[in-house]
Every structure is written in C-alpha cells, then in structure tokens.
Amino acid sequence: MKFHRHKFNAKPTKRDGMHFDSQKEARYYDKLCMLRDNVGEIIFFLRQAPFHLPGNVVCRVDFVEFHKDGSIHFVDVKGYETPEFIRNKKMVEALYPVVIEVKK
Fold first, then answer.
1. pLDDT class for 1, splitting at 50, 70, 90?
2. What confidence tier does 58 reach under pLDDT thresholds 50, 70, 90?
3. SS in 3 state form for 76-91?
4. pTM of the model
5. How far are the Cα atoms of 19, 21, 64 from residue 26, in angstroms, in the given order?
6. Phi, psi of 3 (to 5 degrees)
C-alpha cells in the first residue's frame, strides 16, 4: 500500500492492521490500548465515529472513549486545527450533546 504525502506532513501509519492518518493518532491509539488492557481505566473505545451534519457533511472524531467511571470522551487528535475542522467541531457541539476534546 502506497501512502500519499499529507498536506501537513503527517505520516500515515499502520497499527494492528489499521490505517491511521498520522503517527500522533497511532500513538494515541497505543495509549488507549494500554489504558484498556493494562490499567483498566478505559472499558473500550471506538474509532472514526461519524456525526452527520447539515449539507450532507460528515464530521468524524478519531476516538470515542468509554471510561470505567461511566464518562464518555469524544477525542480528535490534531497537529493543526484547520478552519474547516473548527467550523465542523462547533456545529457538532451545537447539534449534539457532546464536547469534542482536541489532543495536540
């Protein structure tokens, strides 16, 4: 599989047979696996969860984390926040009862 150069110099990475848009996102995945498997802080997590927005737009968050304490975290891993991401994040938070955490 050939990866194309990302416009923000992110390096596509594979972990456990899954594609990640950046090494940063893959490292965050590794952290979640450790928190789930070794520490038990996270029960499970989902990847690339979609939020459907007006205008046939889909905003996907990188991870939805289900923590042992019952809390749910919506997380997007970013090296750089584009104006499009900021706009979509605000729209998701206005339409859905969630807050998207941005991990840099």
1. very low
2. very high
3. EECCCCCHHHHHHHHH
4. 0.89
5. 8, 8, 15
6. -95, 145
Which residue, among 103, 86, 82, has the nearest Cα to 7 in the 3D structure?
82
CA dist 70 and 10 (Å) reads: 33
CA–CA distance, 51 with 42 (Å, rounded to integer) = 22
Sheet containing strand 57-67, strands side by side:
42-53, 57-67, 72-77, 100-103
Residues 96, 29, 12, 103: what is their CA dihedral angle, to the nearest 10 degrees? 50
Amino acid letter, residue 45 = F
pLDDT band, very low/low/confident/very high, at 96 (cuts 50, 70, 90): very high
Total residue count of the chain as it appears in this document? 104
For 13, residues 6+ apart whose C-beta sits below 8 A from its C-beta are: 19, 20, 22, 23, 25, 26
Domains defined for the chain, CATH in brackets: 13-103 (3.40.1350.10)
